[in-house]
Amino acid sequence: MKRDFLHVTDFTKAELNETFDIARKLKSKVRNGEEHHFFKGQSMAMIFSKPSARTRISFETGMYQFGGHALYLSPNDIGIGKREAVKDIARVISRYNNWIMARLFDHKYMLELAEYATVPVINGLTDYNHPCQIMADMLTIQEHRGTIEGQKIVFIGDGNNVCNSFLNFSTLMPFHLVIAGPEGYEPDAETLAYARDAGVSEIEIVHDPITAAKEADVIYTDVWTSMGQEAERQQRLMDFTSFQVNEELLAYAKSNAIVMHCLPAHYNEEITDEVLNGPQSVVFDEAENRLHAQKAIMVMLARSGGADIKL
Q1: Distances (CA, A) of 216 to 99, 132, 155, 178, 204
Q2: Which residues are identified as catalytic?
Q3: 43: domain range?
Q4: How many structural domains compose the chain?
């Protein structure tokens, strides 16, 4: 049976833990140079409406390591929802390829793509959420903090797609999530209500970065202006000025707190050079883990479809 990964909540808590375990094993195989051609002869169509370094590199490299091939489709190749109906693209690609990964603006197109595709669809990002990123983030937190559960994770910045994915994840594993940003930049209201109603994690929305950062285990930030928001850049720079992650703010967190950023970073805007490249930063471990987490998601989806993959 075909299964997709569109939201982190598409997996249960047990499946998330299994995915992290698979990711660690795959990471070890890569480090040890062990072949793992689980998808030899298979192909992935990668649909990009939004450009990306890490998403393309990690999925393309991952398919190569699996013994398969990834096909990059730019906005000029496929104009999702513009040049051709989404449902037609989904059905055509399903006849050619074994997998679809899409990085889109509009979340409704991701849902439609998955509805009509007959092969697994993986959400590489939409304006609403970024489930592959959050899987890499939580794998990194496990590696550096030992566990996700019970950690105080402070997200400082815009209530964007990554922030929404943190909220979704909070419905599956218990931790203390603090979201700090200026008034008017809160995360999606329905997602926030859903996360709070789940009653799994403690969730706070605050508008003071210092209050948020106190005794934090993890300080996480992202760009203040995402793709598609360029016209708002100057206003956002003014609104977010006091929310920069710098050494002064980091001093309020625990002495062994880790600093995370999903990249690309705008140095000395949302985060200073000294912090991003400092001793508490795990940003590049986090970036590497996109590869391993995404490959683990693929293994999980393939197993759900009946593939006998043993690690």
Answers
A1: 39, 24, 10, 9, 13
A2: 262
A3: 8-130+290-304
A4: 2
Mark whether 237 and 298 lie in a shared domain: no
| Residues 109 and 142 reside in one and the same domain | no
Q: pLDDT tens-digit profile of 189-208?
A: 999 999 999 999 999 999 99
CA dihedral 250, 253, 254, 255 (to 10 degrees): 20
CA distance 130 to 10: 13
Residues 282 and 300 in one domain: no
Asked, for residue 309, whether it belongs to a domain, the answer is no
For CA atoms 264, 12, 80, 158, the dihedral sign is negative
Q: What is the CATH number of the domain that holds 240?
A: 3.40.50.1370
The reply to whether 140 and 278 lie within a common domain is yes
2-49: per-residue pLDDT in tens? 999 999 999 999 999 999 999 999 999 999 999 999 999 999 999 999
Give the whole-angstrom CA distance, residue 66 versus residue 37.
4
- Assess whether 36 and 141 both reside in one domain: no
Residue whose entry in the numeric block shows the structure tokens 């409406």: 49
Is 54 contained in some domain?
yes
- What is the pLDDT, as a whole number, of residue 80? 84
pLDDT number for residue 150? 98
Q: Largest Cα–Cα distance in the chain? A: 55
Phi and psi at residue 130, in whole multiples of 5°? -150, 70
Residue 2 lies in a domain: no
Q: Quick one: which of 302, 254, 257, 245 has its CA closest to 282?
A: 257
Q: Which residues pair with 259 in a beta bridge?
A: 219, 281
The whole-model pTM stands at: 0.97
Q: Which residues of the chain have pLDDT under 50?
A: none
